[in-house]
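User: Quick sanity check before I run a bigger batch. Here is a single chain. Can you write out its predicted 3D structure?
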Amino acid sequence: MKRLLVRETRNLNGRIAVNGAKNAALPIIAASLLGEGESKLKGIPNLRDVNNLVKLLSDLGAKVDFSGNEIEVNADLVNKYSTHNELARKLRASYYTLGALLGRYGQAQCALPGGCEIGNRPIDLHLKGFTALGAEVELNHGIVKLEADKLIGAKIYLDYPSVGATMNIMLAAVKAEGETVIENVAREPEIIDLANYLNIMGAKVKGAGTDVIKIEGVEELIGADYTIIPDRIEAGTYMMAAAAIGGELVIENVLVEHVRALIAKLKEMGVEVIEDVNQVKVTAPNKLAGVDVKTMPYPGFPTDMQSQFMTLLTQAEGENVVIETVFENRFGHVDELRRMGAKIKVDGRSAVVAKANLEGAQVEATDLRAGAALIIAGLLAKGETEIYNVHHIERGYQNITRKLRDIGANIELIT
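Assistant: Done. Predicted structure follows.
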């Protein structure tokens, strides 16, 4: 069984580069199903989720070549519109094939998706959007089936600014007849990235990054070359690691605007953060001041950084409050941190974190970001920490073991 061996590390120094954003790559790869001819996508991270999505597209009949950090997709040979159920259940992003296949072919079928168990994440808002566009929706025994003779633009209001629903409705609407207006949409940078790619293919999408997106349907989209944005969550993970462990670390390939909420919190704690064009330099202080944090949809503090930030708070002065508003089950890492000596009290969606000396232990990554939090904790802890369920971590961080070793971390992957 794979596991990570992590030992106490005094400082992280040097430079570390961020890969392309997983949460942008997955919907953009699915969006390539909409384009006639070939799309060449660059900056794609080589991750478990990406490889599973590549297998899904290949199973549909698309020609897909994934080499290095580039993917070439030609969807002209797609010959079926039902995804492989076992593959679909392995990753949350499989549901993006619903919007893309519905948009191009007027039909789609996919098993309800898997991914990390971090809370209730139904796709009812996705289905509401597809229905508004004119699709017939059938949900039986965990299988979603969509059919539409013709998609017609509509006005759609999302009850919650869901990232997945926003993107999926965009994929279906770009070839719908007339105008689609989606209100109360998510504003994450990955949505802007998807809109930019669709527009390069010939779509007419306006308003991405605001709370209203307007889409004028077009008859044809053409495959295109595109480079995705850097991964803001990966960048934030390394920034928090440097702040917690100490040293001076330069994180390269960062769009600073995308990590503005984290930078603000780090500066509150006394961390020095120097911003450059496409990188940030993080220098840890001798003592970390305490802060409270509340997760919110973008541009607020990201839920995907909450578990790593909680580990950072175990080294901060006083008692600090973490409030999770996005997912109701995103404190799975708390029990694992407690095994290592963390002082954390949980009440519903709130946690109070006090300063503690961590000690090595055997722990399990309960989800992707919890795994990253445990790596930081292991680098802080005296002795040796063994982290199991490494597959969760591999879903979101390419070559994290090698990258961390290169900046001084005492970490080893045991296979």
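The mean pLDDT is 95.

User: Great, the batch can go ahead then.
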